[in-house]
Structures are given as C-alpha cells and as structure tokens.
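hiii, so i know i said id send this last week but things got crazy w the move. better late than never?? heres the sequnce for the chain we talked about at the cafe, plus the structure i predicted for it. fair warning i was half asleep when i ran it
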Amino acid sequence: MATKLLSLLMPNPGKLAKFQSDGYVYIKTINGHEIAFTDFGYTHDGPAIVTFSGWNQDHRGWSDLTPYLMIHHRVISICFRGHGPNRDPVSDFGFAEHAQDVLALLDSLSVDRFIGLAASHGAWAAIELAALVGRERMPALMILDLTMTEPSPQFAKALKGMQNPETWRPTVLALFKQWGSGIPKISVAAQGLKNLGGFGYETWARSGRTIEEAYRVWGTPFERLRSLPDPPLVHHVYSGPSKKVNEPLHAKFEEDNPQWFSYYCAKGKTHVPHIEKPGVVSKQTKALIERALNRPGPAKTSSKSG
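okay and structure toks below
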C-alpha cells in the first residue's frame, strides 16, 4: 500500500530524469574487482530490473529510461569492470565474467528474482546469466537493438578495426556516426557528449574481441538463446532502420519459439531506443514483466527414485 501511494506521489518521469541522471554511484568489491552500480526504487516489491550496458558505456546510459521504471520497480544498473568512476585498466575479462560479477553483486544485495534489461551486446552477458540462474530467478529478459544475425562484412571489419591500435579511434567514431543516424534527439546527443569518456584503446579492443568471439562461438544471438534449456521470456525491441531485415527473421524465430520469444519495432532512428524512446521501452518492459509474472513456473523435477 505504501509503495503504491509513493508511486502516485512521484512526479512525471521526464521531470525526474534530470534529478536522476547523475544519481549516487555505489561501489562494491566483487570477485576482487571494483564494481560500480546505481540502485533506485529500493522500496518496491516484486522482481528488480537489472540493466546490462553495452561495452564502453556506464550506468548513465540508462538515465533517460530509469525515471519511467523506478516509479514501480527497483532498478539496478551495474557497470562492467573498469567502467565505473575509476577507469584504471583491469585484467582481461569477457561476458562470462561480467555475468558472474552481476550474480555476485545481486547476491550481496539479497536480490532474489530479477528481470534482465540489456542494451545491445550487453545481452551476451545477460544470456550468460540466464543460463546460470534459470528462469525461476530470471523470469524475463528484454534485449534492446542487438544484431541478431551474423555480423555484416562492415561490422566484422569494424570489430577488427577496434582491435588495432592504429585504427581503433576512427573506427569507433564511424560506428557512433552510423548508430546515431544523424542524432535526431537531444538526449542521444547528450549521452554521446557527456557519458562516453575515460575509455581508450584497451577497452575498445576488448569490446571488439569479445563481441567477435561471441559471434564466432554461437553464430547468432538467436542460436545462443536457442541453446538455453529452459529460456526466460525474451523480448527484443529493435529500432527502425533495419526493419526490413529484422522483421522476417524475428517473425520466423517467434513462430518457432512462441512460448518464450517476442519482438517489437520501436520505429526509431538510432541504435539506442532506451535513450531515444524511453517511454516506448518503458511500456514494453512493463508489459514483459506482467507476462513473466503470469507465466507458469518451470516444472519441478521429482527427487524420488522408483
């Protein structure tokens, strides 16, 4: 009752965004490394929403969306190693290690059930975590604008370019120009201007290497999802520019996996629907959570012997 009353008294999400965007950052030592995170909506019941950023982004990438979600849900945004206020170099790691860090951090916060919300290639870590904990603990995963096909020749070349000390920076700048698609909204431009600093060749090379490795091992994110023995509900929200490619592939995958996969086109112009269209992504997230809470749990395996 108190939580519902608090939600009614909260101001408009748009007005909250300015207050929240540089919210207090907590740091815990997890698996021997500093892990930075934010934690909003602490008093809410129900599963928390746990965000997974893409490489070379931090908690601030969620500052446009979090005000919409924190009114009704606890929202915990967890940074990769070396992606918090301390940008000192860290030993090499990948998506599997980030999944382990997120799990250990959630355990330290006594967070039981949670919903994953992953931007772009942060989804590889989120899927790793889904495989670790099962859908009883992680009943749903929202993925935002991930390349679900094999990398295009241009993207494959960019992944190689990020791993070269001579070409990483022009490669990164070209990618941002492409992903921003002209930057039609001031919030997208602001994220690029304010929240991407502190990263050099080492972290961009790691991003290229780990993304390249994920596609090499699994082929596509569709195949990685298909490998899960009992998948959570998975909902992919992608932007509009690649709709002609995405629509038939997603429709076929949904047809093959109707029990747990769905998708939605946000009709955006950038690679970041959670920044460009936070209201749309918020509605999609809330609908996914409702579906997840109403979905029957996994069948219990009997421990009795014959």
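btw The chain has a mean pLDDT of 87. thought thatd interest u
miss u guys!!
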